[in-house]
Write a structure and sequence with these properties.
Blueprint (H helix, E strand, L loop, with lengths): L1 H58 L8 H13 L12 E4 L3 E4 L8 E10 L5 H24 L9 H19 L7 E11 L1
Antiparallel strand pairs: 1-3, 2-3, 3-4
């Protein structure tokens, strides 16, 4: 009888130990994956919130209709077109900008660039009207050019390829500022002076 009691007690202890290890395995399994589950849930919540806020702010704008200033500018562009430019007998004409001085984006020393540009304007634009238009828009062009040049570093302006890239970007920027939503009227940007000091 004593042997039976001892065997029952041993069986009870073994059952208790096995349930403890199973519970311990479950706890360690939960303990191992719980932080990962929490992080995943937080990421999903923040991603959803960011997406929702982005849609709210993007969708809150009303569809853009041309404002009065855009309509005025497009009307000015139409008035600039030269009569008789369809036959192509006229040559393009040039508009000279005043020199621009801008500090370069260099950390250690003060370096600046002095640039003087000439715009080659299409023959489709009447020279007198075009000159008056460009004189009126000159502050916008000089501001844009100053900001653009100030964003460049010394490495950005060295070499022939970089100068051609700058000419191309200035051409695109000027055409975008002056003639949005119309055919490009400025054909080329020419450097009269481009000095770095």
């Amino acid at each position: 009888m004593a042997d039976e009691d001892e065997t029952k007690q041993q069986e009870k202890q073994e059952k208790q130990e096995s349930t403890k290890t199973e519970a311990g395995d479950k706890k360690s399994l939960i303990g191992r994956f719980l932080p990962k589950i929490i992080v995943a849930v937080v990421v999903v919540i923040f991603a959803g919130a960011g997406f929702t806020l982005g849609r709210l702010f993007a969708g809150s704008r009303t569809p853009q209709t041309p404002g009065a200033s855009e309509q005025d500018q497009s009307a000015q562009v139409e008035k600039l077109e030269a009569k008789g430019s369809a036959d192509g007998s006229q040559k393009s004409w040039y508009y000279h900008l005043e020199p621009i001085v801008a500090n370069l984006d260099v950390a250690d020393v003060t370096r600046y660039v002095r640039a003087s540009l000439t715009l080659e304007v299409s023959s489709e634009v009447d020279e007198k009207k075009g000159t008056a238009f460009l004189d009126e828009k000159k502050p916008i062009l000089t501001n844009w050019l100053t900001v653009y040049l100030a964003s460049l570093s010394l490495d950005d302006i060295r070499g022939e390829n970089n100068l051609k890239r700058i000419q191309s970007q200035v051409l695109d920027g000027f055409n975008e500022k002056l003639f949005p939503d119309s055919k490009l009227k400025i054909k080329r940007i020419l450097f009269k002076e481009f000095a770095v000091q």
